[in-house]
Amino acid sequence: MTVGRKGHSQTGEDASARAGVGPSSANAIQISNVTKSFGAPGHGPTVLQNIDLAVRENEFVSLVGRSGCGKTTLLNIIAGLERPTSGTVEIHGREVRGPGQGQGVVFQQHALFPWMTARKNVAFGFRDKSLSKSDKEERARELLQLVGLSAAADKYPREMSGGMQQRVAIARALALDPEILLMDEPFGALDELTRIELQQELLRIWEARKKTVVFVTHSINEALVLSDRVILLAPHPGRIERDLAIDLPRPRLRTDPRFVALHEEIWKGLSS
Amino acid sequence: MRGRLVLQYAMSAAVIIGAIGLWELGVKTGYLKAYQFPPASKIAEGFVEIATTGFPTGITIWSHVLTTVTRILQGYLAAIALAVPVGLVIGAFPLLNKALEPLIVFCRSIATLSLLPLVIVWFGAGELTKVILIAYGCFWVMLSNVIAAVVYVDPVLIRAGRSFGLKGVALYREIVLPAALPRMFAGARMALGVGFMVIVGAEMIGTIEGLGALIMEARTFYRSEITIIGMLVIGVLGFVISTGLAALERMLLPWGSTLEGART
Question: Residues B147-159: what's their mean pLDDT?
């Protein structure tokens, strides 16, 4: 049994109406009728079915759902790392045909290059060939400062804690100056305190740099603390179950009754 | 803490010295035959002889070592120089890799020394035969490791590279290659070990120079202490060169997993 779209919370609006599901160049990301199945057509499992989703510029959207609901696959499709079986994804009106079209990705594992120091890893993110090496290093220094890691610039990834590694990974993704930032459970492997710290850090960076963010998480709390909108995905086949606007002012308190009510609503949506 | 360590070393040393002493005593009292179990004193005498007058007369231990090391390095370096580019190409193409895998496993499985008679028929019993045998043994080990190093690069790193728009040759050069280096170094160390295993056999024929020849020659004259010296020297050489390679790796790949860097 699904919680229908009629079941609004006090603050949760059906945000897709406002964002406009139809084609619109005002949207940063426009996902239209995306289906993804693996294996031979019609035989392999369908991971995503008929996904329609529009994300506005500078919006912070979380994808929440159980394992197997296809949230990571959807993120990979937006990133251009996987191709949809059918349907299209557009970023600012341009169809996504692969990576490097304005998407910056932060992965679940830090995915830093172990042979590069923090600064080199970030400098790697500047793919612009017109930049000189010293320009890149200088800008890498600035980004490391942004994520609060100036002191660790010359450390190798294995010399850093999990939280530091993920900060570098964020700085590296920002080096591309991406229009949209795609994050696949970036804080999932961190301890609770580091996780909260990095959530605050991410909000600060998001406000400073004004990016469109799509954030995959299995933590309802995390989605509620961070997002303008929470998209609930349901599995078998992966589909959008609910689309909730989170109109709470930031910083958000986990003890705020509205926060608690939204948490409850999402929890019900996920366990149905 | 330090006191405990000193005690530990002292005890280890005492055990070794005790064993050598017992051995010596066994020979003195006639329980052990000196030509079967040459005692430490005999080995020490033998070493002085081989270091000065040489064995066979005129060929000192130093020239044996030089000859052997030269042969190993020639075969080893040739094998590495060939295996690295070939492995990098095979590893880049999964289909090619699958197609060649049975052949590579087959060739690697042939005990190198069993090829000795054939290689002698083809190339004679000279220097070339010895170098080729060493190269053969090292090559397949190195090749398998280079291919595995490339194939088993962490897919997370490849996806990260792709997310920055890298693909094809650029992806291979900038991500796959550096990520494969630690495993390639491990392969190079394994291949060197194979070189040392092969050398003794390869030097048993057609030469009186080299550590393998020394060991065989000593057997002919029932000079077991010389055989033991040959074994010891090979062991020390292998240790020294392997340690040197590890140091080189730490220098070239300071980010690698063998580095004992402090985790903060």
Answer: 95
